[in-house]
Amino acid sequence: MAQPAWQDPEPLALDTAPVPEYGSGSLADLLPTLAAGLEVPGFTAPIPELTPADRNCVFLIDGLGWEQIKAHPDEAPFLHSLLPTSRGGTGRPLTAGFPSTTATSLASVGTGLPPGEHGLPGYTARNPRTGELMNQLRWKPWTEPKAWQPYPTVFQLADAVGVHTAQVSAPMFEQTPLTKIALSGGSFLGRLSGEDRMDVAAQRLAAGDRSLVYTYYSEVDGKGHRFGTDSDAWRGQLMYVDGLARRLAEQLPPRSALYITADHGMIDIPFDEQSRIDFDEDWELSAGVALLGGEGRARHVYAVPGARADVLAVWREVLGEQFWIASRDEAIAAGWFGPTIDERVYGRIGDVVAAAHDDVIITASVNEPHESAMAGVHGSLTPVEQLVPLLEVRS
């Protein structure tokens, strides 16, 4: 029945939000599946479509989601040709996890755990011990890494039982806390150029009878943030990384499987007042809010004591048609952060969690000037952000 025009619109129902496929088809399930195939003790294969291989290489392209590859066959002919191989030949994507953002996704990849367990639930999140916002990508303010994320990585567990394990990435990432808590184990080999990374990854793959190698490229994401995915700069990066993927695939040693994936997709948001809601200029949204965390399309909202219910009500009233607006407990119950939440992680999640449904973001022009100026963004549960490839090449 149509809603009478005089009634206020209903907010988006939380059960309409797509929930990541934790436990069967999310980024957190990839390395445990590969480790199970390598007979690393303690692992089972949550992605049953993947066939074990002796040598496994994961090439993660930051920001290159499933829908971006589908939409650009001319710029990415090699990657596009591999779409039918995704997820063990099913032609289906994986889900990134929530929020669909780099720090969260890389921690899910490396630990094999969903965000509610590894404890990096967003771009920024409140540290319950200090009350400060913690930037989990830049690791500011400094927080003891092992206290923040205490679980071993899949790489460490594989290395401990004799699997030849290596990460090949930009040298600047070797000593970062995010690398230490999410991707460490075995050897780290820093290489500046993309071509060198592909060559070294192939060499390290061949160096063991059982191998697990990870390599990474960031600039597709970088150009998308700065210029948007509808820019020549972004398309140029896509063409370049398509060549890198082909270069690596052509060098695979025998008995190898190459998996090409991403940490999230990306969406371009227009630069207008309707599409970019400025929290720092909006008295309604900021009333009762002590801290604004997360990022534009996946916000953690931390209320001042006693104001949680009022903040939730106002955010639902103002934004409920454009965002899925949930209380902390509602978001947890819906499974946004995974099937279980560690006690240490509970207070890192916002009192209110806002996930964008429409083509809109919540900026913070005063406190987040750099992030507020980005053309391309991500973080929410929509397919363009959430779906990532798992393209496969075997030798």
Give an overview of the whole structure.
The protein is an alpha/beta fold and 395 residues long. The chain is built from 18 helices and 18 strands. Helix content is 32%, strand content 19%. Strands 6-5-7-1-8-18 form a six-stranded mixed beta sheet, sandwiched between helices. It has a four-stranded antiparallel beta sheet with strand order 11-12-14-13. It has a two-stranded antiparallel sheet with strand order 2-17. Strand 3 and strand 4 form a beta hairpin. The protein is globular, with a radius of gyration of 21 Å.
Topology:
Elements: H1 30-37, E1 55-61, H2 66-71, H3 77-81, H4 86-89, E2 94-95, H5 102-111, H6 115-118, E3 124-126, E4 133-135, H7 145-148, H8 154-160, E5 164-169, H9 177-182, E6 187-190, H10 194-206, E7 211-217, H11 219-227, H12 232-249, E8 256-261, E9 267-268, E10 276-278, H13 283-286, E11 289-295, E12 298-303, H14 308-319, E13 323-327, H15 328-333, H16 343-346, E14 352-356, E15 361-363, H17 369-372, E16 376-377, H18 383-386, E17 387-388, E18 391-394
Parallel strand pairs: 1-7, 1-8, 5-6, 5-7, 10-15
Antiparallel strand pairs: 2-17, 3-4, 8-18, 9-16, 11-12, 12-14, 13-14
Which properties best describe this structure?
single chain, 395 residues, alpha/beta, six-stranded mixed beta sheet, 18 helices, globular
Secondary structure category: alpha/beta
- Round the Cα radius of gyration to an integer and report it: 21 Å
Topology, number of strands: 18
The helicity comes to 25-40%
Task: Determine the number of helices (DSSP H or I, runs of at least 4 residues).
Answer: 18
Shape descriptor:
globular
Strand order within the widest beta sheet: 6-5-7-1-8-18
Q: Uncertain segments of ≥5 residues (pLDDT<50)?
A: none
* Most strands sheet: 6 strands, mixed
Rounded average pLDDT: 96
Beta content: 15-25%
* Terminal residue distance: 57 Å
